[in-house]
């Protein structure tokens, strides 16, 4: 019941809680070591790293940090109010109001990011997201996303609203990455240097194996 209800309601929930999310979102940039690692592995096919930020939210602090590092940022979010705040906060970035599920922008990027966003999707919706990641990555490009520690569901809170999270097993994520020619560079479970986030970083291989 929770899976069906909360997975389907995630966009409307963030639409409703956008202002509260912006106010309460941790902006200490504890994510910086992983973002630096992400950029260090990303190719620069057009001089600057082109980043696709899936579930970009308000753009602060992550997309702001990427812009400050001279990346070219495209933010995508299914919640219209999040996109409006992103555009207000980061007028130099491109913002697209779209659901990440089934996304096809018809272009590729050096890096794709799904930080604290992908794990709101149901298991059935997470599986095809690996095709979305690969479709939008240039050869040699990198994808970084966060998950739970293992198979299971969890509930969190944004403002007055409950939000749903789910994770597959690490082995299943490795299978899904490999099936799209994405090679794991680094995976840390509950990284103590990143507020106990579980993070994946993978590269699109130059040729399928």
UniProtKB/TrEMBL annotation:
Any single biological process term in GO: methylation
InterPro entries: Methyltransf_25 (IPR041698), SAM-dependent_MTases_sf (IPR029063)
Entry keyword set: Methyltransferase, Transferase
Record flagged with keyword Transferase: yes
Top-rank taxon: Bacteria
Record carries keyword Transport: no
Example of a GO MF term: methyltransferase activity
SUPFAM superfamilies reported in the protein's UniProt record: S-adenosyl-L-methionine-dependent methyltransferases
One Pfam family, short name: Methyltransf_25
Domain Methyltransferase: 51-141
Protein known as: Methyltransferase domain-containing protein
Organism: Celeribacter halophilus
